## 1
Amino acid sequence: MTAVGDAIAKVPLFANLSKKDCKELAALMSERTFPAGTVITEIGQGGVGFFVIASGTATVTINGKVVRTLHDGDHFGEIALIDQGNRTANVTADTELQCFGLAAFNFRPYVKAHPDVAWKLLEAMAKRIRENLDVS
């Protein structure tokens, strides 16, 4: 398997994809490496890509508050691509971060053609909303 194929295989979002669909997705993705300290997404900026982390860690912050740490197999960037709005969080590389990115113009058609991925995206977003609600 290729490096991008290995990265995709770690992502629960893509767990139900056939080998053919994984191969198709891998062909659409490009490798990106971000040095430690790089702000990859910034609140209020337009979204140009969806990212899957192959190695390294990153911190997600909203208005200066740390909301989660991302690791191998995690993904980010989908919200701005789904609604074509601005980024909702800052994502900053803690270590050198190797990612595979899917450009906005490829993301929407791919998700529309793969309902299992669309459903998993909905589940992931619902989970994030629940994590950020203060219901105590």
## 2
Amino acid sequence: MDNAVIGDHPGILFALHLCRGNNQSKFMASGDYGPIASKVFRRTRFQRFLLEYDDARSGGFEPLQHVPEDRTVVLGLVTTKKVTQESKDELQRRIQAAQAFMPLERLALSPQCGFASVMEGNLLSPADQEAKLRLVAETASEVWGKS
């Protein structure tokens, strides 16, 4: 059904966020992308996949090897569930680890999900959220260069 909706729309980019839940700083599911990788990554026509990789419950980067060469993966390495700030070094190391399965030019960085996926939001203040978004922007600038 997704492919039928995507159809042929020149100039429109379609993306899929695979979410494991983000309700009031709690998740609802765990598991790596391996069991669904070949079906979702290869059989759908999404140009971007926004994937949660903010903790161990997401598994490793191995499933990225199933993403077709004309697609991009946005690594959700920064959690929106916890106040604890990730370090740039940690994010850069994880991006480098993902490169074992996909080239850097087809990777991007983001928070793993929104900061308020439900009306109640998550347990982060606006200042916490701003700091995490600044971290994403600064890390991306250092990894991919300023444009």
## 3
Amino acid sequence: MTIEDWRREINALDRELLRLLNQRARVALKVGESKTASGVHLCDHTREREVIERMCEANQGPLDDRAIVELFRAIIHESRRIQARATNQSSEQADHKLKLPPGHTRVAFQGAPGAFSEEAAVKLLGEEITLVPRPTFESLFAAVEDKSADYILAPIENSLAGFVHACFDLLLDSNLNIIGEVIIPISHYLIGCAGSSFDTITAVESHPVALDQCRRFLAANPQIERIAAEDTAGSVARIVARGDRTRAAIAGRRAAEKYGGVILRAHLEDSSENYTRFLLLSPEQDFPEDADKLSIVIELPHQPGALHSALEPFARRGLDLLKIEGRPVKGRPWEYCFYLDVRGSSADSEVIDTLSELRRGRVETRILGAYLSAAMPAD
């Protein structure tokens, strides 16, 4: 067979692949309709892992498992997107933004304008708020006290990088209360100045976490030097201001639009399942009436079985612990506090009874906040 004969065969296979992909998408839409009718969330990571593992086991090559993982991640991601679009999940979430009291609309975030934190604040609260950028986490948590903001929005965890310990430690040292949360997808773009192209780029700068989340892209392009910076959006601002066609930044699309940067490559992140969860913090305990999630911190006596004894009352009352994270207690080496996310509200009798039991058992307990849990983004 000639090259043209092989190409004709590939073209026929491509048409068959497209037909099958659309057939799969139609079935996925039916699954989405059933989930919505049953009140089940569209995102099911367990099921997604099972699909990918099954396909890797069935794979006979020449595609390797890495390629199978990436291909099916993309297929699953697109299936979830069209499910959400079909059920209007995205528009429903947009219509239920958290409302702030009149006259209290200044929200501080860490980073330069255009940062992912700014995007999260707008998603949670709408475009009408006054956004207050702060350069560091320390200055962020001081924003309410120094009267430059009414609330702050702080990242607390990333689905890949894990817990943001600096923010948690600052939260513990503050008198702020969690009154809301939002989760946004993190998609990284290679952004240059006007007139630049991918071939001209010899160096890229961004926050170290963003660089780490794009390791596969950077490994595939060893000619590009990596430069750590304080934040993603600030990197874009500097790149555009300098006009250096050999430099680029890794940041979100919002930053490119904010500063007039040119997107040279899209979706550099190693994993499409990259999300960051942010907490809205208030100096007041403005807990919403429909709160269904509670965050607390407990400090335990340094003795055998202390953690087991502290968690047992939750299990006995059927309270769902969504997260447990341990942190060292300042000034007390080898002693720890534990951050807990609990399904429920501070007004639930089971929660009240559990916390009372903990305190009777010499467990130091502090409620950090009660709020409406955020839905996973459709995209």
